[in-house]
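Anyone opening a protein record will find just a pair of labelled lines. The record below illustrates this layout.
***
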Amino acid sequence: MTRSSLCAKMAAALWVIFAVASARAEMAGHGGPVRALAVSPDGDELLSGSFDTTAIHWSLKADTAEQVLRYHADGINAVVLLKDRRMITAGADARIAVWTAGRPQPDRVLEGHVAPIVALAVSPDGSLLASASWDRTVRLWSLSDGTSRVLEGHSQNVNGVAFTPHGRLVSVGYDLTLRIWHLPDGQPEIVTLPAPLNAVAVAPDGEIITAAVDGRLRMLTGEGKVSGEVAASPTPVVALAMSADGTLIAAAGIGGTVAIIDRKSRSLLRTLAGPGPPVWSVAFLPDGATLLTGGADGKIRRWNARTGDPVGSNLAGSPPDPLAAYAGDHGADVFRACVACHTLSEKEVQRAGPTLAGLYGRKIASLPGYRFSDALKTMDIIWTPETVAKLFEVGPNAYTPGTKMPEQRIGSAEDRRALTDFLGRVTSR
């Protein structure tokens, strides 16, 4: 064994020890935002995925990290725990890895997508895995032999997938459409909704729940007819979870709040935490009352969703608002939608996107230490107030094709000017 490989192994071992020790205190082991959570059917295990490119397999009985999974070259956006205890991770590197607990490398890697994978779902019989990607496709994978088929039709990023109890597949995307795919023929019923869609979940009775960038949840019948609507957040909802009995919905907003919705009455019961850094992921334990949240600070917290109380003294409280010092600044208010992915200082822990410190005058995709997409590396854009304004006037997909940045636009020229002025004041070195 070489000195370098020995050092690497020792560093990995120390990292796991640190994660386990931290986990006993607060389930804090990730070095970046916790983007995905999955709980085992018996409620004893948790799998978390992070923008830090790792997944952690936790024991919920002991609140300890059992294993750190390292394979992906970019952030992990989706995770699954199968009934046979296998684990699945998928990320911005467009790869899906299938793991056996305790093994240091994946048993199988599923490749075919050509853009970030952002959501996974397993069929009711456990035979199929569905993946949603920003390459505008959904893929169905056989969990027995790894073969796949492609479902095409979405015209923009696909952000969510979920199976119905009867084996149909539902997908949602930025193109405002919800598609109910009839399997195995692959023909969809298409429903167009009022806002771009970020996530989808299906209740035990087959009702479909969607989460949108306008902060609203919309409920549809299994046939795709809208049957209800709830205002969950003043900011885009980025993650959904449903209790096992289908009575409660947790909707995580990019503004740091988690709304608890009573599905039957279509009412907002309470709001957990926030405002502050985003909550990127939510998952219910099988008891139907305990909710896990994954935050931008890399920590996993427990809540009693029925009372709104944090579970465990170490999990209490809300993370600090990174923009608190700029209260009343219009530019900071516009930037709040960006704080989910970007820091203003090199001293802060890196989030999903590159830091904006020293932004103006920097060539696109040139910041050392951050993995940019190949498409951005070929562009000649220099970041200035004018180019940043143009980015949000036409949208990232049009101005910087191939970006991993979520699609968003700022329609008001006044708001764009306030944002670029704010960035000029706070990011200069």
